[in-house]
UniProtKB/TrEMBL annotation:
Name of the protein in its database record: AraC family transcriptional regulator
Signal sequence annotation: none
Any Pfam family: HTH_18
Alphabetized UniProt keyword annotations: DNA-binding, Transcription, Transcription regulation
Annotated source species: Pedobacter chitinilyticus
HTH araC/xylS-type domain span: 188-286
Length: 298
């Protein structure tokens, strides 16, 4: 199953389901925003591997080399937005300047450079992607409507960028800008490692080695930037993914535990109840009731 739409302004949308795919690309004419609706996709950006799951996405700058890999028993559903550099530059200009400056300035030729990392799929962007996915299922063809969706997707991304990059960067207490930027870059590598390996055993020493920080330096600066220790961040990530599986699949709990990286049923249930307030069994039952009620109303 594949949906492909290229617009007159050179924006493109590709939605497909596949078990095996390898894509190598360098495109100087567009930015790429990659989402995974179900399953997972490995993306290698500038020789750095990241795994994209339904709770995350990545942004790739125009001109960046990247490789996309899918190797799965069941079909992986991906959604990729290719945004023309002029479209993004104009949006960035409109987003950054006030109305008077917009009227006074000519078209911007600058290409914005975004941090190429994993971002959480939350807030308005999550809402817009869910609606765009429904429109794609219905075979959307209206260019004006599609461009409105892409515009709102960029608004959602900029909001997430502010929260995940600007705000967390400012939390670091280093005085030298160069040091602060380098530490934050390495912390983003640590965060990517946790997201990409959350279903495996993660050792603090391996995490520190991956981001080129000592274990104690990592522990101090990670919590300063992200508000949680690496262990707390990993546990919350696993719990959030477990909640998603409980809401959207019929997988048995034993399988969900393996998929998200927990080894013990008892520790998972205890942590889940502490975090959510109810057991995973009750959480699944309440969401099933809620979904049935929603279907009856519609």
């Amino acid at each position: 199953m594949r949906y492909f739409k290229e617009l007159s302004n050179r924006n493109r949308i590709v939605s497909e389901q596949t078990c095996n795919a390898v894509v190598n690309l360098q495109d100087t004419s567009c930015y790429v925003i990659k989402f995974v609706i179900s399953g997972s996709e490995k993306c290698i950006v500038n020789s750095r591997a990241m795994s994209i799951f339904p709770d995350s996405f990545t942004v790739i700058n125009a001109g960046t080399d990247y490789c996309s890999l899918i190797d799965s028993i069941s079909p992986v559903h991906t959604l990729t937005l290719y945004l023309d550099t002029k479209f993004v530059a104009d949006f960035n200009r409109c987003f950054s300047l006030d109305h008077e400056d917009l009227l006074a300035h000519t078209e911007s030729k600058d290409k914005p450079q975004f941090v190429e990392t994993l971002y959480p799929l939350v807030g308005n962007l999550n809402y817009n992607i869910a609606h765009l996915k429904k429109q794609i299922s219905n075979g959307i063809e209206d260019e004006m409507l599609i461009n409105e969706y892409l515009h709102h997707c960029l608004i959602g991304y900029y909001q997430i960028y502010t929260q995940e990059i600007d705000n967390k960067y400012q939390r670091l207490s280093f005085l030298k800008t160069k040091t602060k930027k380098e530490i934050f870059r390495r912390l983003l590598l640590a965060k990517e490692y946790l997201h990409s390996n959350s279903d495996k055993e993660v050792k603090l020493e391996d995490l520190a080695k991956y981001c080129c920080l000592s274990t104690n330096h990592l522990l101090r600066t990670f919590k300063e930037a992200f508000g949680k220790s690496p262990w707390q961040y990993l546990i919350q990530l696993r719990l959030d993914r477990a909640k998603s599986f409980l809401r959207t699949t019929d997988y048995p709990l034993s399988e969900i535990i393996c998929l998200v990286g927990f080894e013990s049923l008892s520790s998972f249930v205890r942590l889940f109840k502490t975090s959510v307030g109810i057991t995973p069994f009750k959480y699944k039952r309440l969401n099933a009731i809620k979904n049935n009620f929603f279907e009856l109303r519609h």
